[in-house]
Every structure is written in C-alpha cells, then in structure tokens.
C-alpha cells in the first residue's frame, strides 16, 4: 500500500513517515500544498494523510481541489485545529476522516485500516486470490494450498501489489515506486532481490510457478504460461 503524507512540521513528518515504513507501507512525502496536488494527481495512492496548515495552499483547499478533479482516494486530515467548526470545515472540504494533533500513532494506523475497508468493496479490499494462493489484507495472512506463508512487511506489500494486478506485467519501476516509494531510487537492485525472496516462499515445492519473469519487461503473477 502506498501512502502520501503531507506535513510541513519536520518532526511530525519524520515521526509519521518512519512509523508507516516500519509497518510496511510505501511512503511519499510533501511539505506544501502545491507539491501535494502534484503528487496526488501523478501517483496512485491508497491513502493521503493531509495536514491543514500548509504553506502555499492549505490542506482544505488541497482536498477540495482533488475532489473537484474526481480523485476519490481517502484523505485523513491531521491538524492542531480541534474546534468543531474546523472539523466540519475539513470534512466538508472532502476529507474522509479528521485526526487532531497530538495523536497516538496506533490510532492513525487504525484509521488507515478503516478507510481502506470503507474505500473498496469488502471482497476487493480484504481477500485476494490467484489459483491456490490467497492473501487477506486485514489479517495479513498469506496461504498457498492451505499452508500459511510467513512474509516480511515488504514481501507482503510486494505480493499484495502483484495480486491486485494478476496476469499483468509490472516493471521494476512500478514495483519499486509502489513498495518503497521515494526510497526506491536509492536502492538499485532491491526489486530483484525481494522478488527472489518472495518467489522462494510462494513457489518452492509447488508444480505451478506463479511469480514469473518477463525478460526485458519485469515480472508478473500468473497461473498461466
């Protein structure tokens, strides 16, 4: 899952970014409203975490602009403004949720999970399956042929992205940007390394190899030759 965090306070931004990465999310960051609009309309985010008091364009205007342009990505608004009128203004601008500062990080994670559930139909949001491989996005449980597979956070994110795009060839850049976000460009062969880890865990011991290399193009998850 890829998340955009928009926050101009360096300490808060670093705290949220680090916490989300430790949970296995790919994170991009922006520090003003103009960058937020540019990023949100360029990359396919699953969640946007948006501060209200931003330089250049405030968060409410960012949310309103994105909604006006047809973007339906869930927005969780973070702000030190906790007056009821401020909350109403934030929600009316297009935010799905509103979390006052200071906040407990576990609560932010719970709100992210809730918005993920609400954004998509339960069957699409929670249960993914290809052949005898299954992935539950809520419990983070992966099984093949009924046997549980233990994955790291990055391996899980990588497999989830593959399973959301079955039979589709995904380039290294697509995989890297989704799973590692902005950090991808500092790690030249990280996608190949993690695809290797993932392939051993989901394919070893099975007659049908699901994670396939498409030479010169990337990788795909498919039960077809």
Number of strands: 11
Number of domains: 2
Alpha carbon gap, first and last residue: 28 Å
**What is the H/E string?**
EHEHEHEHEHHEEEEHHHEE
Alpha-beta classification: alpha/beta
Helical amount = 40-55%
CATH class of the largest domain: Alpha Beta
Low-confidence region ranges: none
CATH homology superfamily name of the largest domain: Response regulator
Proportion of residues in extended strands: 15-25%
Description:
There is one protein chain. The longest helix has 15 residues, at 105-119. This protein has 225 residues and is α/β, with parallel strands linked by helices. The two termini are 28 Å apart. The protein has 2 domains: 2-116, Rossmann fold; 127-221, Orthogonal Bundle (Arc Repressor Mutant, subunit A), CATH 1.10.10. It has 9 helices and 11 strands. Helices cover 43% and strands 21% of the residues. Strands 2-1-3-4-5 form a 5-stranded parallel sheet, with helices on both faces.
